[in-house]
Amino acid sequence: xxxxxxxxxxxxxxxxxxxxxxxxxxxxQTRLKTKVSTAQTAVASYQSVxxxxxxxKNSADSLGQLSTWRAVKATxxxxxxxxxxxxxxxxxxxxxxxxxxxxxxNQITTAKVPTSGDISxxxxxxxxxxxxxxxxxxxxxxxLGDDKSPKGVxxxxxxxxxxxxxxxxxxxxxxxxxxxxxAKTGSANAFRxxxxxxxxxxxxxxxxxxxxxxxxxxxxxDNAANGGYSVTSDTNTFxxxxxxxxxxxxxxxxxxxxxxxxxxxxxxSKMQALVDAANSALSEIGNQxxxxxxxxxxxxxxxxxxxxxxxxxxxxxxxxxxxxxxPSYDKTQPSDPSTRTNLExxxxxxxxxxxxxxxxxxxxxxxxxxxxxxxxxxxxxxxAGIEFxxxxxxxxxxQSTNITSVITGRKNEIDGLNSQISNxxxxxxxKRTALQKQYSDLETSLGKLKNQSTWLAGQLSGL
Length: 463
Prior knowledge:
alpha+beta
């Protein structure tokens, strides 16, 4: 507990003196706090470099995926037919021509119902499925509560969770309309009201029947002898007509052409993303290790050779090009690369597919050059591109692992320093208390001496 003892007897500024003495005592703790601040700044810089390396690793991983090199772009000749490329490895270039013969529909069943009163005795039985008598048909029994009115029936059907939606349409006349709809399209999602709606004012009527969408290729099944066939779907989307392409139809139409081509521009975009990520990593490393000769000031990681060396080793990988095993060489060799012999090695300059270094030490990418090289020899550029991506991914991953290890070490160091700082807080608090007591005792002693002096002076003056 702090006690002010300034000038009680001595007139000394003891609080100021204690503060000055405590500053001297706290000098070791201050040096520890400076070390913590410096270490925290370095950790932030390491983390910034690590984030750039992680971005490079992720970009390389994306480029190296087989799905990237097998991606296609899909186009349709019709504004009512949408063709969308699907991510995956099962895709191929090609063209198909078809007629849209039917669209997928959901079943809609209606009946007139009274505006008030009950329309059911309490239990409704509905069969859902293709209604072909197979095991795919399912009989559903719905038990109503106290409300057996049209709205109560609609609410019970909706709550049953059997894939049906029911509503009561108010017409403004002497009767309303109970409308029951299938939630999904397709003939497999039909339904039938078997019993329980005896109180409706008119027979149940199928306004629309559940049906599949159908495409005819080459004249459809009617021309099977000449290669024609038909394709059906319970929705208006066909996912298996063309590898890697999803086709969605919305109107009956003939002679629709859908084409899928290799998405070279998409590959080039991912190559550009990798180059951009590499340049970002180089820039970040440069910023964190820079040294200003004019001001003689360095950056947080100026003295870390391992971080500075990342830039040099990365640029070397680009300038030296690629050397890798031909993946298509000698198919008779064992599948395990480690047991193969006489493997053909391929060396290729990265400039062949548009990657180069400029005069500033940054990477550049020529998309037009890449596209031309790919169109000339797709298999070679794919093999080289995937190898380049794999090597960059491994390199960035290894460097990130090293940086992460350094960050972990620095954080442990900071934790240790903070522990020492906390210990110093206890020691300094005890020291301050001791100094305050010392000076307080001094003032007390001086006060006693002063009182004795005053008494003695009074005694002497009385003689």
